[in-house]
Amino acid sequence: MSLPPIYPPDAVVPFREELTAVGFEELKTPQDVDKAVASTKGTVFCVINSVCGCAAGSARPGVGMALQNKVIPDKLVTVFAGMEREAVDRVRQLHAEAAPPSSPSMVLFKDGKVAAMFPRSEIEGRSPQEIAEGLAEAFTEHCTKKGPSIPAEELAKLRHIKMCGSQIPRFKG
Q1: Is residue 44 one of the residues assigned to a domain?
Q2: Where in the sequence numbering do the catalytic residues fall?
Q3: Exposure pattern of 1-18 as b/e (b: 16+ CB <10 Å)?
């Protein structure tokens, strides 16, 4: 039996759309995670998305900016903390040796192994630009796919959500 979501599904749609708009595929199950990481030759960038306004509110725009880099990961995937809980747990198992569980967090896999890890402690308190710089550096070092993920004009039109998750009512589903 799967763990129920913590938040009402419709309440997290704007947070999800910030990443899907720049090319991310949502992974909903541990099997989806295993397939994405194991079946991709090259790089997979996984964002553990979150409703946290202080850290995720800067992380999502930073990710979008980083994906304007000249080289970007081969595959972009995301799981949502508190929603697809088993999928999140699987990502955390895959990066356990690199960093303890946190959300938001980001991990760059290369040929199924952790190449770079960005836990919450490296996100919180940083601006989107600072986050983008760190990610772009990792992309330049490990990736070969030509960027950007979307045209800069499209990125400029995105609306960024920055609200505290404690303001979202718990799902009673």
Answers
A1: yes
A2: 52, 54
A3: eeeebbbeeebbeebbeb
